Every structure is written in structure tokens, then in C-alpha cells.
UniProtKB/TrEMBL annotation:
One of its GO terms (molecular function) is metallopeptidase activity. Coiled coil: none annotated. Residues 838-859 are annotated as: Disordered. InterPro entries: GlyGly_CTERM, MetalloPept_cat_dom_sf. It comes from Exilibacterium tricleocarpae. Residues 840-859 have a biased composition (Gly residues). Pfam families: Big_9, Reprolysin_4. This is GlyGly-CTERM sorting domain-containing protein.
Amino acid sequence: MGAIQRLLLVAGVYMPLHVAADSLWQDLPDYLQNKAAAPAAAALNAKAVEARRLLGDIDALQAQLRTDKSDLTLAVPLPDGTMASFRLRPASVMHAALAAKYPSIVTLQGHEVGNPQNHGRFDVTGRGFHGMFQYNGETVFIDPEQRGNNRQYLSYYKRHAQPLANLPADEVLEGAPVAAKVLTGTAAREFGDPVSLRTYRLAVSTTGEYTAFHGGPTRALEAVATLVNRLNYVFEREIAVNLELVANNDNIIFTDPDSDPFANNNNSSDLTTNSTVLSENIGNSNFDIGHVLTTDGGGVAFLGAVCNNTLKARGVSGSTLPTGNSFYIDLVAHEVGHQFGAAHTFNGTTSNCGGGNRRADNAYEPGSGSTIMAYAGICGEENIQSVSNDYFHARSIEQMTNHITFGSGANCGTVTPIADNRQPRATAPADVTIPANTAFILEGNGEDTSAARLAPELTYTWEQYDLGPASSDAATMVDDGRRPIFRSRYPSPSPRRYFPQLEDVVRQTTSLGEAYPTTNRTLRFRLTVRNSIGGSAFDDMQITTVTSAGPFRVTTPAAAARWDGSGPAEITWDVADTDRPPVNCDNVDIYLSTDDGESFNFPLVSATPNDGTHTLPAPNADTDRARILVRCSDNIFFAVNSGAFTIDNSTAPFVPLIVGQTAITISEDSNRTVQLSDLAVTDLDNDYPDDFTLTIQAGNNYQVSGQTVIPAANFNGNLTVPVTVNDGAADSDTFELTITVSPVNDPPVAAADTVSITPDSGATLVDVLANDTDVEGDSLTLTAFDYSGAGTVSIVGNQLSYTPAAGFTGSEVIQYTVTDQNGATAIGTATMNVGAANPGSGGGSSGGDRNGGGSGGGGGGAPGWLELLALLGLARLRRRRQQAQTRTPI
């Protein structure tokens, strides 16, 4: 079978096809991995600073795809030398008629088996295998290394990608303006609103030069399919837009540079020509957006042209090497973004960022910027990276969504609901005031009700959302009181972002595109939450920086300091007036890192006074890479000590330290089982909570049963519960756990009443509430009664008024409702014994007013004969009810 074995495993009727890793991919030998003799630049299809080089048996995959491509599990090589298994399904980028003419063009989408967070697009054509996918928060590409060779591949991260050719500036022409709409809050997108996919008919023309570059019309159409597949991966994810090549797109793949209608080296001319070409070959009513691909450098497009019958064909993208990631994303996705209404977002003016290309009303990204609508890599010393990231800035999402919702883009395309796909929600924190020259952390929240089978985890992007003066070089990419000073960073599964990035704070430096705020100013930030299937949400917040406070700094331990277990460890910091208005930071939290600041996972103390010093027992850990982070407890600013220091205390196991708890609130008369997860514990030689035990001590106003705290009956307020944890070797110091017991309104207790009344005596007022109680001492009100006798009953002055029927003797029961001041109720009964006066009846009667000759019962003595008859009748009635209740049902 040759050096690369072919092995196709088919398992069961409904089981997916598995293409084994060793049947499709084989790493190049070590001596070829970094071979100096790389392909000539003109032959390159992909280029990266670092990459995994592989041989791929594309024939094995193509053979199976001809048989079954509906459910494929494919082994995908990762740049780090490992493999990932992706479950794939067809995702056509062509009209069905065009796809039927070119069955060898197969485009797929899917996600890693067991991890939908890692997802992407793939295609298999005569040009080989191509992949673009997310893996653990990074974009990965798999591409043939050179054109015309579908056997040798590169697997590489986006951050290592290099452009094949230098891309010049593009030109943006104004299309039909779209009135700005606010897409935050409730104006355009509500949390939980359905997300629909909008599909636009795309017509892509190619010049004869472009077609020749790729090796003929079929190969050129295959290159276009790869391009559109990657465009769809971006646009579907960002704004729920899909592009589909029109049915006769092969009619506009021109083959002869001498006879085709395009100049190829004049973008303005080709822009106009493409309108004519598409009208004549496709029909103006048969496409929604048009574009032409050339081999001349640069691009030009009309802004907001989609669905505009005059302008919709006017988009051009060209490169001397029109292939690869940089061409697809940095250029074509950029120009298509213009056609959907997105303007430039960079704030620099150096090199290609100059010449009128900057949009002052849209310049949200420092320097060259890094998102698709910026100019990454072509702005000289203001470049913050060499290639664009494959996502749009929040401003671009807003503009494109405006166009397809309120502009001409709403007038065409096919809208298809995505079942169970809903708009997420973004929640930014409250506005704050922080000291100048100080690092800070932003952390928001996201919520999504989309079906789990559809949506991977949410991703989060924090972007500064300020406009200000342009920068003119790297030195001016700093705070002037207005301009943007923080770059956009790739969407992350974490809702937290450090400003500047944590690694720079730890190293006491900054990277181009991030600068400390040094002035009195307001910084506006936008949190964008994406569900990766077209749903997104925004929320904004503001930070006020003041020069009257700061910089907030950790002063000890200094770099190279040493702590050991022989004495206390002291941490000091420069409060720098952060304890005063307008910052008002009263307390700080202190964290320890044992990996030189890569993470600060060990809380040492929480809410200690912001007085500049704290002493604690030295953590019993062995490390020479310790760092300390001090953060304001109720604010976002923080500082890290100046360098790594040593902790040396290996002679005894580290005693666990409880440093905090989650808030615990329960209702009155309920209980709570305390879990280890309720506590924040630092223990450097053990992994909390694995193998830890919890002990709860007795205290006031509660009982303990195992790990369950049972408050005393009717108790409300704060319980202070002493607890300790043990790591298997040592107990922690006692920590006072707080459990808040929220009061509940207990219902009143209604006691039964018995009243003796003389026949025909008139109305009797009975104070039935006199013996009713309420544990909270609430005032009670008589609110209702239930009576079915022949007499008369009413409520008079919060008492029952009872008048027996004329000539009636015997007993009657009145059921009444008592209500406390908070609305809780109880049911009570009052028994009215109507007969001869009973001078000797014993307790249990309510007494009350005895108008009309009623008697409320008194001291001892025997009951009168009328009362005996009444009691006998009541006993017979109860016996009949009991007999009725015990009858066997039929």
C-alpha cells in the first residue's frame, strides 16, 4: 500500500465512517520538518513561522467521500504533533445545480468529537485538503504547502501564519448610507430572540490571470469554493450570514487574460466592469452580492452594497499570490465586510494606514488594529501583528447587522430559522473609578438559552470603545486623554480579561497596542458575547481613571526575596490614595502564584484593610517562582510584585488555610448541608478539595447533623458556624462560616373556641382572636367566616357576631379565617352551644361580650340537659362522618 497506508473503517449501517489517522496523515521525517530548502515563494500555498509538516493521502479520503460523506469522523493533525477527531457533515457553498456539475468539490463543517467548542470548516477538492477550525481557543489551518502538490501539508496556528505577498491598502467607496441603530440593550436584539441564517447568492468572477494562476477553470472554481467555505465559517459565526455561489458561477470563471473583460491591474475599472459581466452572464436579479478576484495587489469595494441593484457587484480583491489564509481573511473577507457595511477600524496613520484610509468616526483599534476590518501587517511601526485575526470588531458586527437588518441587505437573501438558536445575553460590570497608571481586570457574564446540541460554550471579547485623535507612530500609541489605548483580543471562553495582558503586567512591560491610562479620562468598554452560531450580544461599561490616585504598586516581597517557615511573611503595597475618594478602596485581596505569574490560583487573604501592609504565616511551599498579586476587593484594579521570589518551607506539610466562602443564604426553618466547595482554601501541597474532610462545630441557635446545619425553630439572622478542614495531615485554623437565615412569615395559630348562648337571646359578640397567637407578634385580623346554619353571623369590630335562629337549641360550628399583617392565614372554629345557661362549664370557651343573654362559660359544675343533648347530637354526627369515610369505594 505504499509508505502511507490506506485504511478505511466502516462500522455499521448508521455508524459514521472513521478515517484512521495513520491511513491519512504521516509526519515528515524529523530531518525534513525544518528543511532549509523550502518551496519557491511563487509556488507557495501556505506559509508559517512554525508549522507541523505532513504527508497526506488525499486519495483515501476522496475515495470514501465519493461513497458516503453524510457522516464522517476524520482524524485531523494539530500543530503540536497530536491528532483530534472531528465529526463532519456536508456544508455546501454552491447552488445545488453547480454542486451537481462539480461533485469532486466537497465542503464540510463539524466539531471535535465530544467537544463542540472546537469547530470548523474543511474541504476536499482536486487542490487537496483544507481546514480552518477553532481548537482550544486558537485558530488552526491545514493547507497544502505549495500549489499543485496535494500531498504535502502544513498544520499551523493562525498566530504563526505569514502572508504570501504584501497586501497594499484597499479603497472604500461610499454606498447607500444606513442610519445608525443601537444594537445594545433592547433596540434590535432581545435576549432569547430566535437567530435566523440569512443566505445571500454570491457571484464570484475571476480574471484570466487568476484562473491561470490556479491551473485552469476547474482548479480556479475549487479555489473559489475553498475561499467561500472559509468566508462562511467567519460570517456565519459572527453575523449569521451564509454565502452560496450561484448556479452558473462557472460561466464567470474567465480563462484567457487577453480576451476576458477585466483589466486585472486596474481595480477601479474592474469594479465597474464586474457589474456588466454579472448582469450579462448571471442576470442582475439572480445574485445578491458580486465580487471579482484578480492577481493585482489590493482591493476595492462599495460600502453597504449588498442587495443594492446598482452597487452589489462592485467588490474586487487581488494579490500577486491569490491564495492562502492572508488572501482569504485579510483581503477578501475584509472587502466583503465593506460590502456588508463595515468600515475600517484602525486608528493609525503610518504607511498604508495613512492616505485617507483611516475613518475617524470608526477608528476604535489602536495602530494597525488586528480584526478583519483593520490593517494588520501593513502599517509600518504601528503594526500590532502581521496578519488579521479571523473575527470582526464589535463595531463591525454592529455595522453589518445594521445593514442586513435596516439597510439594503434586508431586501434580499433567504432567511432560514435555526431551530433552538437564540440570542445570548451580555452583562458587563458596573462602572468604576480606578487609579491611573494601574492595571485592571474586566469580567462580565453571558447567558444563552440555545440548545446545547447546537451551541458550544459562549465566547467573550472585551474591547475599548473610544474614538480619539489618530496616532502617527508607535510612540504616540499612548494615552492622550481620548484615543483608544487597548487593542482587541481574540474571543475567549473566559469572560475575564487583564488590561494590560497579565504576562506583561508580570514582566513589568507593555506590548504595542496596550498602554496604561495615565490621564484623567473615561474609558468605555464593550463586552461582546458570541454563541459561535450567529448569535451575539453587547453590553457597555465605563471606567473613570484619576491621577489623584495611583499608581497602585506591590512593594514587597521584592524580586529574589526569600520566605521560610521560621517567621511571618510580610506583604506591603503602595496604597497611593486609593483608600480615599473617588476610588474608595477599603479592602484588598491577596493571591499567590507559584508559576511566576502564569496564574494566581492561591488566595492568601480576602478583604484585609487597604492599609499597605499585611503579615501572615509564610506559605509552606517550595518554589523559586513565587509572585504576589494584590487586588482591591470591591474594584477591578490590581498590582503584582516586581519579580519572582523564593518560598522555602519544605520541612513540614502545608497547613490548609480557609480564606473565604461563598455566600450562603437559606430560609427560616430550613437547613443547609455545607460542602467543601462552599469554602475557598489555600493548600499548596494538596489539591483542594480532593481527599479533604470538613468538620462543623456546635454553636448558638443551630444544631449540627453530620455536615448539615439546622437553625433553631423560627430563627432568622446570621449564624456564625465555626468550621475546619483537614487535608489528611493537618487541620486548618477555625474559620467562622456565615449562614444568613432569611425570615419567613409564619402563619398565625388559631385556637378553638366554645361559647354557651341562651336561646332567643339576640346577637352575641365573640372575641375569637383573644386566644389566637402569632409567633412573630404580628397583629391579627378576622377576615372571613364559613357558616351554614339558620342563624345570623357577621364580623363586627374584629369579632364574630352570632344570633341563633328563633327557637333554636343545640350546637353550631362557625369556621373563621384569621390573617396576620403579612398575609399569612389560619383557620379556626367557634362552637356555639345554644341551650340553658350553664353556670358550671369548664375552660375552653372564649367568653367575650354576652349581649342578648349569651354565656361564655365559667367555673366547675355539671352541664345542663340542653348542653348534653347538643353534645350527644354532635357525637352522632361525627360517628356518621367517620362511617362515611371508612366505606369501601365502589
